[in-house]
Amino acid sequence: MLFWYFFRVFLHLLSGLMTCVFVFPFIDVEKQQSKVRLWSQQLLEICTVDVRFKDASNGVIADRAVIVSNHVSWLDIFVINTLHPCHFVAKSDIRNWPMIGFLCEKAGTIFLARGKQREVRRIYEGLVHQIADGKRIAFFPEGTTSAQGKLLPFHANLFEAAIEAKVPVQPFVVRYVDADGKFHQAADFIGDMTFAESMAVILRAPRMTAELIRLPAISTEGAHRREVAQYARTAVLQELGIAEV
């Protein structure tokens, strides 16, 4: 049974690659986003992950905003894509993942080498231009994944792109729960776990629900990147029910 699920994932990744290479160059952005949204929904269904959206923004929503979220798993990208197909900033390691790395690259993922300040500056300048061009940008300010129930400090550097582009930051919360509403530990993608190992754990586990929660947008007008990063982290902490540390 596990082999069959892996085979279905392989075929779905292959169909995504073919779409990026042979279809995307000939369709407009709106149609591309529609295909990304549907493809992401189908991938999550194969992985037996349901998505439940909750709007906790209190009406404070921005049409043009940089999306940030806590980071639990590689699943997060596809969960967010079911609502808002985005160009994600991701760690450069993902580019080397079999198939999915190439797929992310073709889908517009922006890869960032950790610990290289010059690289951060280059990526940041590129983000400003992409935001100005109307592209929806998203990143995970923790810089890496953390186990559910925890939230790492938010790195502030990339928040500067939203400030310079004069757009708000729209925080989201992603969490994965079981049938009883408790954290589903199979979603955790931490330590030295590989993509294949994480996939096997998810496919063996009982069905899970990914909760995607939109929080109120944060204005960046006249703000410092560290302030915006702290506001976003505090909002995420409160939604997750984690005490400030």
From TrEMBL:
Q: Which InterPro entries match?
A: Plipid/glycerol_acylTrfase
Any one GO MF annotation of this record = 1-acylglycerol-3-phosphate O-acyltransferase activity
- Transmembrane segments in this chain: where? 6-27
What pathway, per the record?
Answer: Lipid metabolism
Q: Which CDD domains match?
A: LPLAT_AGPAT-like
| UniProt cross-references to SUPFAM superfamilies, sorted A to Z | Glycerol-3-phosphate (1)-acyltransferase (SSF69593)
Q: Which residues form the Phospholipid/glycerol acyltransferase domain?
A: 65-177
Q: Which UniProt keywords apply?
A: Acyltransferase, Lipid biosynthesis, Lipid metabolism, Membrane, Transferase, Transmembrane, Transmembrane helix
Pfam families xref list: Acyltransferase
Q: What SMART domains does the database record attribute to this sequence?
A: PlsC (SM00563)
Biological process (GO) annotations held by this record are: phosphatidic acid biosynthetic process
- Annotated protein name in UniProt: 1-acyl-sn-glycerol-3-phosphate acyltransferase
